[in-house]
Every structure is written in structure tokens, then in C-alpha cells.
Amino acid sequence: MSNSVRPDVQEPDRDPDPRVARTLSAMGAAIAAELAARPFHTLTVQHILDRSGVARATFYAHFRNKEDALYWSFERMFRGFESRMDRPGAPRGRLLPLRELLEHVAEAGPVVESMRVSGQLDRLWDYGTDLCAEMIVRRSPSGWGSAEQLDPRLAARMLAAAAMEMARWWVDGKRAAVPDALDAQWHALAARTARW
After folding, report:
1. What is the pLDDT of residue 105?
2. Residue 72's pLDDT band (cuts 50, 70, 90)
3. Which homologous superfamily does the CATH classification assign to the domain defined by 18-194?
4. For residue 144, what is the DSSP state?
């Protein structure tokens, strides 16, 4: 879906056994902690291993390199946000967890800065656009599309780009806007675009 080259992420098992789930969770937590402590370009696989307590062979059984682990962690974050949208009592009809993303980014300032100083932040934003577009397609009502018959996948891509641009804008210091309000504004834009 991307206009750029999408990272070729090796996909760990989606439904791993509990031991594998614990290992992946430990590695995900280690990646986040290490990124809060150092720029991504200085992060090594050994840093992740030391913090997670995972053996090198185990790391390479799941990931090819630190970039693969980073993008897997990013995907995992988006899947977690999406699962929160499906909890009982959660508002219905939301296509994207923009509020959750903004709240997370606010808490993860050092990680964002780690990616920025390493020259990786734009790649993550681009990948986020890909992930958001896929989520919008998955979560959209069947048969959605504008009166002008805009292709739903193109509409999803456009809406995803708008969401990620809102997130970039917000991260770059425009935090006077509240995540709930930005989420509502984006969903209003999505409803107008898809006309449902």
C-alpha cells in the first residue's frame, strides 16, 4: 500500500505458546527501554539481549536484526491499540486509535527523540501510515466509499496519511490540541470522506 518501500518485517508467531509470548514481551519491553536510554543508531542487539535476558539464538529465531525487532515492536503497539478499541464498552465505529497513539507518543518522548536523532523517525511515520491504512480497510463498514466512488483502499491511504500528519504535527509541539479532540476531528473527516 505504501508509496515507499515497506520494511520487510519477519513475523513472529501471532499465537505463540506462553513461553514464546513471554520472550517476545521481554524483548519488546527491552527495545522500548533501550530506545528511551539511547539513540537507535547506537542501539545494538546485545543491548536488547542484556536488558531482556534473552539468548542471542532466541533473538535471531524471531528477528533478523534490530530494525526488524523495532518494526515488529511498532506493529505490536498498533495491534494493542486496535484491541483496546474492541473492548466491551468502548465507543463503536472508530476506524483508528488516533487518541491512543497520541497519548502513547506523549509518554514516549525519549523514544521519539531517539528515533529522530537517529534519522529513523520519518521511516516510522511512513510505516505507521501503512499500518493505519490497513487498519482502516479492516475496520471500515462493508461497501464504504464516497459518492464519487473513490477506491476504498485509496481513501484508506489518504485518511491514514492525514492521521499520521496530525500525529507528526502534534509531536512537533502543537500539543495545545487534546488527543480526544484530534481523534474526533479525524473521525469526522473520515466520515465525510467515506460518506457513511
Report:
1. 87
2. very high
3. Tetracycline Repressor, domain 2 (1.10.357.10)
4. -
Q: What is the pLDDT of residue 186?
A: 94
Cell matching residue 60: 535471531
For 136, counting Cβ atoms within 10 Å of its Cβ (0-12 exposed, 13-18 middle, 19+ buried), the class is buried
Answer whether 177's CB lies under 8 Å from 170's CB: yes
Query: What is the spatial distance between Cα 39 and Cα 66, in angstroms, rounded to a whole number?
Result: 13
Contact 163, 102 (CB under 8 A): no
Q: Give me the mean pLDDT over the 50-76 stretch.
A: 95
For cell 539468548, the residue is 55
The answer to whether the CB of 67 falls within 8 A of the CB of 41 is no
C-alpha distance from residue 85 to each of 20, 24, 29, 99, 116 (Å): 25, 23, 22, 11, 28
Domain ranges of the chain: 18-194
Mean pLDDT, residues 38-54 taken together? 96
Contact between 154 and 138 under an 8 Å Cβ cutoff? The reply is no
